[in-house]
Amino acid sequence: MTAPADPLSAAHPTLARLLRDLESRWPSDGERVHRISRYALLPAGKLLRPLLLVESARAVGGGYEESLPAALGVEYLHAGSLVHDDVIDGDALRRGRPTVVARYGVADAVVTGDALIMGMFAAVAECADQGLPADRLLDAVRVLARAGVDLCRGQAMEAELCGDAACGLDRYLTMISLKTGALFRGSCHAGALLGGGDATAQRALTGYAEHLGLAFQMHDDLLPYTSEAAATGKSALSDTANGRPTFPVLMAYERADAAERDALRTALRGTLPAPDAFDAVRRVLDSTGALRAARERTRAEVAHAKNCLAELPPTEGCAVLAAIADFSADRER
Amino acid sequence: MTAPADPLSAAHPTLARLLRDLESRWPSDGERVHRISRYALLPAGKLLRPLLLVESARAVGGGYEESLPAALGVEYLHAGSLVHDDVIDGDALRRGRPTVVARYGVADAVVTGDALIMGMFAAVAECADQGLPADRLLDAVRVLARAGVDLCRGQAMEAELCGDAACGLDRYLTMISLKTGALFRGSCHAGALLGGGDATAQRALTGYAEHLGLAFQMHDDLLPYTSEAAATGKSALSDTANGRPTFPVLMAYERADAAERDALRTALRGTLPAPDAFDAVRRVLDSTGALRAARERTRAEVAHAKNCLAELPPTEGCAVLAAIADFSADRER
C-alpha cells in the first residue's frame, strides 16, 4: 500500500485521525486557559510535528493509538511556542486570524503558552496509560525537553541575528537547526523511541528530521516572495519589517555586490517603511538570482532527508515520511 | 538529631548543598539563554520548592543525591514562571535587583522563561542517571506537568480577579491553591514518588504542601503591610498598584462597612495614584482588624500543614518540613 499523494492534507488517514483526536480532547467548554489553548490549537495548523512523531513510531513498528497523546503533545509545545513568538514580535495575524496576543492580550498569551508547554509533558506521560513502558516514555521526555530548550536557544539566537543582513549563512543555519530543526528532530526521535526503534533507526529518523527541518524553514523563508499573503495567513512583510535575515536574504547577500549589500543591510535595519524595505529586498533577490539558488538548496535538503530513510525498512510509515519531505518544500503555506 | 533552627537559612545543610549544586550547574559562561537563565536563578531565592522536594524524598526514606536534579528542576520552573510574571506585570524589581524583563527585554524574558520550564523536565529525566527507576520518574514528570498547568490556571484566574476587591475569599483561595499551592504540592508529591513513598505517605505530603502553600501565599500577601520594601525586594506598592485583591484586602472586605468596602473597591480599580491607593487600603486594614485576622488564619494553615506530617515516621526530613511550615509564615521576605 502506498501513501496518499499529500500527507499534509486533511484527507490523509493519519492526519484525519490526529485532527479528530485533537478536537475531541479540546472541547469548547472549560475554563479560561483551556479555552485560550483551544483557540491556539484549533482550527489546527498542518499538525506536521504530530504526524512526524506518529509516522516515525510506525516506521519502526509501533502503533498509532499508543503514541497518540505524545503526538498531540508536540503540537501543544509548538502552539505554545508560536503563541509566545507572537507576543515577542507583536504579530497580529496567524493562519489568517487574530493571534492569541492580539485577541486576549499579553498576560493570557504568556500564561497559555506556558500551559501548552507543560501540557506536552503531561501528554507524553499519559502514554503510560496506553501500555507503553516507562523507560521509553522517560527517554521521550528527555529528548523532547532538550528539543524544547534548543528551540529557545534558536529563538534567542534569531533575536541576536535580527537586523543584521551580514550575519552569514552559517550562523543562520545553526539558528534554524535549533529554532525549527530541534522540534522536528525531537518529534521523530520521540516517535522512534515510543515505537521501540533501535539505535540505528533512531539515528536514521533524527537525521531525516534534521534535513527536513532545514528544508522546511528555508521554504518558509521563501514563502513571502513566492506565495500570496492570503495563503500563508501572515503578512508577507512581517519578516522584513522585523529585520529578519532570512534564507533568501542571506543567499542574496553572499551573491551581492557592494551596493546591493548596502541595500540589504539598510532594508533590515528597520529605518525604512515596511513596504519599501520589502521591495528593496525583493529587487536584490531578483538581481542576484538568490531565489533560484535558495530553492535549489532547499530541494537538496529534501533529498538528504529522504536518503536518511534508506536505513529503514520500506514500511508505510516510511513512505509517508518521504512524502512529507517532498511536500515540505512544495507548499503554499 | 533535630533540624537546625531556620530551614530557610543558607546555614541549613540541605539548603547549603542545594545552593552549591545550583551554582555549579549554572557556570557564568555559556550562550545567551544560559546566561539569562543564570541571572534568573542566581543569586538564589529561598529555594523553598527544591527543599520541599528533597526533604519529602528524605521523609519517605529516599536520598539527597538521587533526587537532586529534580529538586533543582522545580526551581527552574518556579524561576521561569517568575520571569514570565514580571513580563506580565511589568515589574522592574525582584529580590532587590532588575527583573529579567527590565534588564533584557520582553523577547529574552519570554524565551528564557520557556527554556527554564523545559529545563525542569530535562532535569527530572536526568535523575535516571542517578539510578532512580523510570516508572517513579515518569510519575514525577506527570505530577509536575500537571502542577505546572495548574500554576498557569491560577495565574489566569488571578488576572480575572484583578481589580475586584469584591471577588470573595473563596475564589481567592481557589486561585492561590493553584497559583502557589500547585507547585508546592507538585514538589512534595514528586519528592514522595522519587523517594519511594507509598500512597499514604504521598497523600500526607501532598496535604502538608496544600496547607503550606496557602500559608505561604497568605503570608506573602501580608508582607507589604508588615515588612519593609527593602526586605521583600519588590515595591510594597506593587500588589495595590496592580489591583490585586490579596488576602488581607479580602479579609478586610468581609469585615468592612459600606463606606470601607467602597474605599477598597476604589483603591483596587487603578484610578488612584499608587501611594494613595496603598494608604487607603492600609486604613481599612487597620479599622477592620483584618491584619490580625489574616495572621491568625495563616497560622491555622501552618498548624494544618504540620498535622498532616503526623502520618509519617518522625525522621529528620519530616522535622525539616515541620520547621519550614513554621518559618513560612514568620519571614521578612
From TrEMBL, chains A, B:
Q: Which GO terms describe its biological process?
A: isoprenoid biosynthetic process
**PROSITE patterns listed in its UniProt record:** POLYPRENYL_SYNTHASE_1
Cofactor(s) listed:
Mg(2+)
Q: Establish whether keyword Ion transport is in the entry.
A: no
Give the protein family. Answer: Belongs to the FPP/GGPP synthase family.
Organism for this UniProt entry? Streptomyces botrytidirepellens
Write the protein's name: Polyprenyl synthetase family protein
Keywords of this entry: Magnesium, Metal-binding, Transferase
Instruction: Please name the GO terms that the record assigns under molecular function.
Output: metal ion binding; prenyltransferase activity
